[in-house]
Amino acid sequence: MHRRTFLSTLAATSVTLMQSAYAQPEFPKQLIKIIVPYGPGTGPDVVARLVGDKFSTAYKQPVIVENRVGASGMIGSELVARSPADGYTLLLAAPSNTIAAVSGRKLTFDPIRDFAPVGMAVSLSPILVTAAESPWKTLKDLIAAAKARPGELTIASGGVGNSQHLAAELLNQSAGIELLHVPFKSTSEIVTALVGRMVDVSFVDPSAIPMVKSGRIRALAVGPSVRSKVLPDVPTVAEAGVPGFEYTSWYGFLAPARTPPAVIASLNRELQKAMADPNVQAKLAGASMEPQPGSPEALGAFMAQDVARWKKVVATGRIKFE
Question: Which of 69, 82, 85 has its CA nearest to residue 110?
Answer without folding.
Answer: 82
